[in-house]
Amino acid sequence: LRDKGGSERVRETIGWRKYYGAEKRTSLFFLSPANIRDTAFLTFDYGETGKDDAQWLYLPAARKVRRISATDRGNFFVGTDFTYEDIKKETKISAKDFTFKTIGVEDVDGHRCFAVEATPVNDKIARELGYAKAISWFDAEIWMSRRSEYMDAQGKTLRRILSQDIEQIDGIWTAKRVTATDLKSGHATELLLTSVDYKTPVDDARFTEQALVHGVREH
User: Fold this and answer.
1) Which of 24, 35, 43, 96 has the most CB atoms lying inside 10 A of its own CB?
2) How far is residue 101's CA from residue 115's CA, in Å, rounded to a whole number?
3) What's the pTM?
């Protein structure tokens, strides 16, 4: 986490992800520093089924698991510049919440990309997410977003997300560095993936409210 003056704070996390058909479950645990250690997050992303997704946050100081409402999904996640929706969707944009149109072809970091404009399907979705429009630049070869910008109703860019250091790991294209910047405050959060494993089986028990409370050391 880096403020506009250049001061930095570092947090360490560990997380798991597992697919159940179209449903994706993700759990994330903070390991350090001490003031955020044992904070944990769980999300059930039900895909495009029409069923409302579910998210829970465990705050050890309160010793309580809190359900995250859909109306909160545009809020920033635990002091970072990523929103709850970013964490759930891995910075992707949900097809059920937006209409899309291709608006051009541009170069991003030396890669040919399609610029795609996404507009919320209604005002309720726009209010929940906190922006009126998004533009993403998708790599024409690997179909991953390399850059996304989120704008208000007047067209002013509020946030920017860059996906960099993209490489194949176990045959899966993976962005090992993702940076979200709040253009209003100048604050930025850089997510660095230092160890990625797509092969080791993941226990279902990691994706429960009980697991959030017990912490990562219990599994």
Assistant:
1) 43
2) 9
3) 0.92
